[in-house]
Amino acid sequence: MKSLVTVLREQIENRRMIFNLAKYELVNKYAGNALGIIWLFLNPIIQISIFWFVFGVGIRGRGAVDDIPFIVWLQTGMIPWFYISASIGQGASSISSKLAIASKMSFPLSIVPFYTILAQLLTHLILLSLVFFIMIVHGVGFAGFSILALLYFILTTTVFLIALSFFTSTIISIVKDARQLISHIVRFIFFLTPIMWETPRISERWFLIVLRANPVHYLVIGYRNAFLYSDVRSINQIDTIYFWSLTILLMFVGTRIHIKFRREFIDYL
Question: What is the distance between the alpha carbons of residues 56 and 133, in angstroms, rounded to a whole number?
Fold first, then answer.
């Protein structure tokens, strides 16, 4: 608990620096490209188009899901996935890649995972406009849209990613090989999450248990329900308890090992 309180206090005391560093992170990412920040939209559009062509046109034959065009259904899962996968990757390497900068600027290392996730959140909030645009283009409308549910899952996803980044960024700083393992885990989670396929199609009980043990499943289904079905009741109460228990555990453990080892990061790296 003491470690968590210390980390929270450091975030509050450095809140202005956190926001400025997050903005810099976002702008600097596209600074060297000719198209600049336009790539923020082009990258997801290209990826969604590829998955739509392969799975929506090739495999499904343009078939809809619950009378919703597949591309609309697909992008309500892909947009949160972009946020989650980028945050896991960037958050895990945040301390090891920013240690030199942190030592020069003399700010607490605990703000590095936080502003890294905040930068990804800013990107995510911008990309949500793409979801609304595609829904309008395909005439889906907003009868199934729930702003409260969307806000809840944006907050839920962000808290989870911050907790996870404290844990993974510390582990990678101590054990460099963990970076490779995390990249494989992220790839596995992508295929284990119902982004391109529907959960009701699964009949194997053991697989459903594994599926629901995946916290990203809870988040992606929540986003999709918020956009298309105006219903979060399908998020089982047990799933919610499990998800928040895991998130709180990650937050406690992550901040604890961060505080314990951060004075030694320079020796490990």
Answer: 19
- Sort 205 into a burial class: Cβ within 10 Å, 0-12 / 13-18 / 19+: exposed
Cβ partners under 8 Å of residue 84, min gap 6:
157, 161, 216, 219, 220
pLDDT digits over 124-152, tens only?
Answer: 998 998 888 888 888 777 777 888 889 99
Higher-scoring residue by pLDDT: 37, 191: 191
- Model pTM score: 0.88
**Exposure b/e, 89-128, CB count within 10 A at least 16 = b:** bbbbbbbbebbeebeeeebbbbbbbbbbbbbbbbbbeebb
DSSP for 159-213, written as a single string: HHHHHHHHHHHHHHHH-TTHHHHHHHHHHHHHHHSTTSS-GGG---HHHHHHHHH
Classify 68 as helix, strand or coil.
Answer: strand
Lookup result for tokens 């829904």: 135
d(CA 176, CA 251): 21
Task: List, in sequence order, every residue forming a beta bridge with 68; answer none if it has no partner.
Answer: 65
Q: What is the pLDDT of residue 29?
A: 75
